[in-house]
Write a structure and sequence with these properties.
Blueprint: H1 5-16, H2 25-40, E1 44-51, E2 54-62, E3 67-69, E4 74-75, H3 80-88, E5 92-94, H4 107-111, E6 118-126, E7 129-138, H5 146-187, E8 192-197, E9 200-204, H6 206-212, H7 216-225, H8 236-248, E10 253-261, E11 267-278, E12 284-293, H9 295-323, H10 330-345, E13 349-356, E14 359-367, E15 372-373, E16 378-380, H11 385-393, E17 397-399, H12 412-419, E18 421-431, E19 434-444, H13 452-481, H14 485-493, E20 498-503, E21 506-510, H15 512-518, H16 522-526, H17 530-535, H18 539-554, E22 559-567, E23 573-584, E24 591-600, H19 602-622, E25 628-633, E26 636-640, H20 642-648, H21 652-656, H22 660-665, H23 669-684, E27 689-697, E28 703-714, E29 720-729, H24 731-780, H25 785-817, E30 823-827, H26 828-838, H27 840-845, E31 849-853, E32 859-863, H28 864-880, E33 889-897, E34 900-907, H29 914-917, H30 938-948, E35 952-958, E36 962-969
Parallel strand pairs: 31-33
Antiparallel strand pairs: 1-2, 1-7, 2-3, 2-4, 5-6, 6-7, 8-9, 8-12, 10-11, 11-12, 13-14, 13-19, 14-15, 14-16, 17-18, 18-19, 20-21, 20-24, 22-23, 23-24, 25-26, 25-29, 27-28, 28-29, 30-32, 33-34, 34-36, 35-36
Length: 970
């Protein structure tokens, strides 16, 4: 078979492609359909997937519109002929779809609306099963050649190979994701480590220091004082005894628990695992200790002890309830159950409700606030369908927060809010397997987490009510039993629970449901003896069942129940729950009827075991790590671990009411934008791990640095379903980093000044010495006395210039090194007058006028040498750069303002062109008037002095009008 050049090039290109050429399965499909459109010149090409007898359009390209389109799913039940052809033929080539039997079913619903005249469909097979079809569609009647069919089949073969690889990669990717998720959790849980060598502390891990709330230096000081100083006084001797005994016995590893004091004075429970190293002489020289915070575990022990006391009380109450021989009316028995539930569960309210047609009617209600039984209430079942359906479908409706649970949302405004109820434990009550009513255990005020014991206790009370209800019905039935035994048989045969009746130790009746439940035929069960019945009970359960049965019979109990595993016909054991009703003969220890109501609870038992195991695993991970763990679902916090709450002081209820916006609102304003961009950007890119640092406001209003490591789970649409955060407090680390940065900046500034100063010395001193050397050479080269005098004069001038330079360099060193920094209280006016005395000759020579307007009482706290240098430089500059047209006038004034003293020195000299030199006025060696005696260090020194004193200087100037300097002393 020969392909066209174009087709050959397309096939060659696809054969040469590797898996990495396609970013996704979608990109592969786009390449395939476009390649076939190009190779065949047809209007449309599509790839359809086949699953559950449905063809789904994965990718369809329309050449006329140069765009991809989507078509509706095609169902096998609608087009059986076409689907049958896909299963039978390697290719379905239809030149004219209007006349082919294979396309007759789909003609008017698909081909005609899309203007399709002919088609070529190639089935796609994966592992021997039809997995899809590649459809080539044309707008004109077309006779498909063998070459074209082979071309498309070749591309289908290529696509099948790539498709298999994609599926394989997806499976591998999911496996890696699961491994990474496990690694993520394990790597973010850490214990503290410290090492002692020859009684000296040589290493402490960051986590250990965080655990005790100390710096490394603080811990070292405590250790040097006494290595057992932080151990609780009541535990010191015990810990010493364990350690020194282990060393004496040359043990390599020991484990012990004790209380350890934190920096803030509080104590934590720790479990230390110490590995002891011995030298060649057998001397213990090193101890490596792994410290784990077990405070929560100890608190759990306390909580368990508390729960045990509650459990003992509950068991006692149940025992008294079930063992009571007093025959009471049903209403009194209900009241007893309500009272017991309030005492055993520490409730705010307890009530018993029955379903009466479309109403939920409260039959008995006790309120602890009122401390009495209240009038009954009713609720319309039609207004609370979620609640009714949930209670009916579960063993118990356990709600730790009624305001956040969907099942109780219908009752918030009309029931829970007005009564102040926060938590509820509602147990369905069934009679003969039917939903009969509800036992409502309600709690107020603080959040409540219902324990397994609480749930079992409530279930036992509900079972008692169920038995009481059934007993009440049984009593009524017994009164009619002698009159109409058939009625009882009718009821038993139509209930979902199995019923068996024993009389005088023999089976007298077995309901069809009982036979169906056990799997044995009625004839077989009817022939069994009581002992043979026990033989079908699991060996681990039979003794307990015998004890329960015979103990209750000895006590003439009319109702009791038990659970056990019963041997089925398939050889497996299944969990069942038997409710026993016994009718005793008058004036006799024997019973007249022993009625068993048997219920299948196998599925419930399995679910309870799975739930218990899952709860234990989750609790072990989240509640035993010092790092905080939180889960966000649908933009809300749905779970926070105890350590997460402890980090910032918020309680669990506050956290679980937070939305994502509430969380960002608690972040520092400087961090919000960065964190939101990081989080939402990562979610948009479907990143599975996100890590960021931020400051979060604690309950006391202060901000704490935190490091969040998040693991995100996405659904098939790319939307996150769970956002799991592990957070830790890094405030101490961040403060340490900030201090290092501050010291680094100071060092950097000092280095820059040192480099600048080195440049000055190397440049200016060298220029002066070079000038002196040249003058001396000229002096030696002439014998003319006048020239020698002129050279000597130049030599003197250069020497004076060098002295000025050295003076200013010394001043620069003093400023930058902080030598002249002793501060004193100085009278400003007196200091100005002292400076004027020093330049008196300059003032007289230049006929300068100095005006001082400074109050005698103004005093400033400053360094005298700095103030003297500032005044001296500004006054000499004012005179030195006087105007040639007028004598210099200098005005000095000062005022005391809030928080500062402002001094102004203003002259009428030449002025400075600030448009030209604004950024250079206070630069080192910057001059502006071309004076031969100008050095360019005066204003530089003034600025350095005033800034080193914590103040600032401002300049205003106009050329040929003068300059005004304003100095601010703080």
């Amino acid at each position: 078979m020969h392909f066209s050049t174009k087709q050959f090039e397309i096939l060659l290109s696809l054969y040469k492609s590797s898996f990495s050429n396609f970013a996704s399965l979608e990109k592969l499909q786009e390449t395939i359909v476009k390649s076939i459109v190009k190779g065949l010149g047809v209007k449309r090409v599509g790839i359809w997937s086949f699953e559950d007898d449905v063809l789904h359009c994965e990718k369809l390209f329309d050449a006329n519109e140069n765009d991809f389109k989507v078509e509706d799913d095609l169902f096998k039940e609608d087009f059986p002929i076409y689907f049958d052809a896909l299963q039978k033929y390697l290719a379905i080539a239809i030149d004219n779809v209007a006349v082919s039997p294979y396309t007759s079913e789909i003609l008017f619903s698909y081909f005609v609306p899309n203007d399709i005249k002919s088609m070529l469909d190639i089935p796609i097979w994966t592992k021997g099963l039809l997995s899809g079809v590649l459809c080539c569609e044309h707008v004109e009647i077309k006779e498909w050649s063998e070459q074209e069919i082979s071309f498309v089949r070749s591309i289908v073969d290529i696509y099948s190979l790539f498709f298999e690889e994609f599926k394989k990669r997806q499976i591998e990717k999911k496996l890696i994701e699961n491994q990474d998720r496990f690694k993520f959790i394990s790597e973010n849980i850490s214990d503290g480590i410290y090492i002692v060598e020859d009684d000296k502390l040589v290493f402490t891990s960051k986590r250990y220091l965080e655990m005790i709330g100390m710096t490394e230096e603080e811990k070292l000081n405590f250790h040097n004082r006494d290595m057992f100083y932080l151990v609780h006084p009541e535990d010191v001797e015990k810990v010493k005894g364990i350690i020194y005994s282990a060393i004496e016995k040359k043990k390599l590893s020991i484990k012990y628990q004790h209380r350890c004091r934190r920096k803030d004075g509080s104590y934590m429970w720790r479990e230390d695992i110490m590995n002891i190293h011995y030298d060649s002489t057998g001397r213990a020289f090193r101890a490596v200790t792994i410290a784990r915070d077990i405070s929560q575990e100890k608190e759990l022990e306390i909580e368990l002890e508390k729960n045990k006391k509650i459990s003992d009380l509950q068991n006692k109450l149940l025992l008294n309830l079930y063992s009571s021989h007093i025959e009471l009316p049903f209403e009194e028995r209900v009241r007893n159950v309500i009272g017991i539930s309030v005492e055993g569960l520490r409730l705010g309210r307890s009530s018993y409700w029955e379903i009466k047609k479309k109403r939920l009617v409260c039959k008995s209600l006790f309120d602890c606030v009122e401390n009495k039984f209240l009038d009954v209430e009713t609720l319309d079942i039609r207004s609370i369908p979620k609640y009714i359906n949930t209670v009916n479908s579960q063993l118990a409706l356990v709600v730790d927060d009624v305001y956040s649970n969907d099942s109780t949302s219908e009752l918030i405004d009309s029931y829970f809010k007005p009564l102040g109820i926060t938590d509820t434990l509602d147990v369905p009550i069934r009679a003969n397997g039917k939903f009969f009513g509800v036992l409502c255990c309600e709690h107020r005020d603080d959040p409540r987490v219902w324990s397994e014991n609480d749930i079992s206790f409530a279930r036992a009370l509900a079972d008692y009510l169920s038995l009481a209800i059934e007993e009440e019905k049984r009593k009524k039935a017994e009164r009619k039993l002698s009159e109409n035994q058939k009625k009882l048989e009718f009821i038993s045969e139509h209930t979902s629970d199995g019923i068996m009746t024993l009389e005088k130790g023999h089976i007298t009746y077995v309901s069809p449901a009982f036979s169906k439940l056990s799997g044995y035929k009625l004839d077989f069960v009817n022939k069994l003896t009581v002992d043979e019945l026990f033989s079908y009970i699991h060996p681990e359960d039979v003794d307990e069942v015998r004890r329960i049965v015979y103990d209750n019979l000895d006590k003439r109990k009319s109702q009791f129940r038990y659970e056990y595993r019963f041997l089925g016909t398939d050889g497996d054991y299944y969990w069942r729950e038997d409710y026993i009703n016994v009718i005793y003969r008058q004036n006799s220890d024997d019973y007249s009827k022993y009625i068993i109501t048997s219920r299948d609870i196998d599925q419930r038992k399995k679910i309870e075991e799975q739930l218990l195991e899952s709860t234990k695993q989750l609790k072990l991970i989240t509640e035993n790590t010092s790092d905080g763990v939180a889960v966000i679902e649908d933009g809300k916090l749905t779970y926070v671990s105890p350590s997460f709450s402890d980090l910032l002081g918020y309680n669990k209820e506050t956290y679980t009411k937070m939305t994502m916006q509430d969380i960002f609102a608690c972040m520092h304003l400087d961090d919000v934008e960065r964190v939101t961009q990081t989080v939402y950007g990562a979610l948009a890119r479907q990143e599975k791990e996100i890590k960021y640092e931020h400051r979060f406001r604690g309950v006391d209003g202060t901000y704490h640095w935190r490091e969040d490591s998040a693991n995100v789970i996405y659904d098939e649409n790319g939307k996150y379903t769970k956002y799991i955060v592990i957070t830790r407090d890094i405030t101490e680390r961040k403060e340490s980093e900030n201090e290092k940065n501050r010291l680094y900046k100071i060092t950097q500034t000092q280095n820059e000044k040192l480099i600048n100063f080195t440049h000055i010395v190397s440049h200016d001193i060298r220029s002066h010495t070079s000038n002196l050397s040249m003058i001396l050479d000229l002096y030696d080269d002439t014998n003319n006395l006048e020239e020698q005098r002129e050279y000597f004069k130049m030599l003197k001038q250069s020497t004076n210039k060098l002295s000025d330079t050295i003076f200013f360099l010394n001043e620069t060193v003093a400023v930058q090194s902080g030598i002249k920094n002793e501060k004193a209280i100085l009278n400003l006016k007196e200091e100005i007058e002292k400076a004027l005395v020093g330049i008196n000759a300059v003032i007289r020579t230049n006929e300068a006028q100095i005006n001082i307007a400074v109050d005698d009482a103004i005093e400033i706290i400053t360094t005298q040498s700095y103030l003297e240098s500032i005044i001296f430089n500004l006054l000499t500059n004012a005179i030195k750069y006087k105007s040639p047209q007028r004598n210099p006038v200098v005005n000095i004034s000062a005022v005391k303002e809030v928080g500062e003293i402002k001094m102004i020195i203003e002259d009428n000299g030449r002025g400075i062109d600030l448009d030209k030199y604004k950024d250079k006025v206070f630069g080192m060696y910057k001059t502006f008037h071309g004076n031969p005696d100008a050095v360019g260090l005066g204003l530089f020194m003034v600025k350095n002095h005033i800034e080193s004193l914590g103040g600032k200087i401002e300049v205003e100037s106009q050329v040929d009008k003068g300059t005004k300097f304003t100095l601010h002393f703080t």
